[in-house]
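Chain A, query sequence.
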Amino acid sequence: MPRSPERRLLSAFCVGAAMLLSSLAAHAESPAADLPAGSYKLDKYHSTLVFRADHLGFSFYSASFADFDATLQIDPADPAKASVNVDISTASLHLTAPPQDGFRNMLLGPDWLNAGDHPTITYRSTGIELTGADTAVVSGDLTFRGKTRPVELNVRFNGGYTGLAVYDPQARIGFSATGTLRRSDFGMSYGLPPEGSNLGVGDEDEFVIEAEFNGPPLKDADTR
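Chain A, predicted structure.
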């Protein structure tokens, strides 16, 4: 019995998806040294920046920034010489929990993020120390609320590939990173708990970054 057009379309889609997944797996196993050196641009659709702070000692309140960008200069054969620049829109604060009335505006106000006077948060790397085959500590300068302080990132390299013709014809590379900062170092002392108490918002903030970058185009790829 002949297959319907819908079944033929579904079958073709499944075959195509299987071929794509097989190709992705093969490329993901490529050594990092095979990746091209050059400038890599953040893939915003596959990147997140989340931070959290202790609230009264009962939980860690979490939020994120929806609009941030980054550029990475790297030679995968010599990653210790890489550099990264990050720019975050302060006003892009995103609250994952349903906020109380006016809560987001309060957080963007002068006592907290002060987005009106300081609309951008920046990070500029100053050095990289390799700590393992796929891990490193990145040192850099964070500028936040008009103050610049050193902040370190603990980074894990998750892999990459040189590109996939048609589907993803650029090099792609991915990282996970974590770090902490003391908000009082940046002039944000509002709500700090009294010494010996948890009744407030903790001074130390944690942040987690998941980032993918697109790099130089795949050589000799037919991208039509």
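The longest helix spans residues 5-28. DSSP finds two helices and eleven strands in the chain.
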